[in-house]
Amino acid sequence: MCGNNMSAPLPAIVPAARKATAAVIFLHGLGDTGHGWSEALAGIKSPHVKYICPHAPVMPVSLNMNMAMPSWFDIIGLSPDSQEDEVGIKQAAENVKALIDQEVKNGIPSNRIILGGFSQGGALSLYTALTTQQKLAGVVALSCWLPLRASFPQGPISGVNKEIAVLQCHGDCDPLVPLMFGSLTVEKLKSMINPANVTFRTYSGMMHSSCIEEMMDVKQFIDKHLPPVD
Predict the structure, then answer these.
(1) Which superfamily, per CATH, for 12-225?
(2) What are the domain boundaries of the chain?
(3) pLDDT band at residue 167, thresholds of 50, 70 and 90?
(4) Catalytic residues
(5) Closest CA relative to residue 83, chosen from 91, 73, 93, 92
């Protein structure tokens, strides 16, 4: 790969054990890389599913005194009324849509792709799914929030994903992204897409992290919405 040196390294990939007929694209949280999540997903993998865990580009983050770290977009503050990096969020969503397009070129239809993420990555996966014209199989949104929520119209969205299945998970002891953010997000989602397709799970004692119970719920969701086709 030559060309632009600013681009992030190639994603961490857990290949399908046989021919891939479905994919999960999972976006890590602030300051992380795709490697940890690729290991976590390898522990719950299904043989026909390819798991793609891209790495965010390194950029200065306002919240962390402009220290440079892997980040999908700038985070200015963590309160509900904090200013948001609208340009960065929209650009990051375009980059995720390009990843989806790449898998479609590889022969996996977009409606056989689940988009997911943790924290900032979960926020980006929700925003992308609600704004893309690519029909997706579902979204896994862990310990996160909906960015630019005021930019969405009141009431149901009209896009191709208005019936999309969403699994939203949150720890009830999360000190970074409080459970309230998750609760507000799930209420907003239920007003935008078919509420019957939105599942909200909370985990007792879990902080800003994941747990085995949550990963089992993620596996069940992936297996349900990306069943084998052959």
Answers:
(1) Alpha/Beta hydrolase fold, catalytic domain (3.40.50.1820)
(2) 12-225
(3) very high
(4) 119, 174, 208
(5) 73
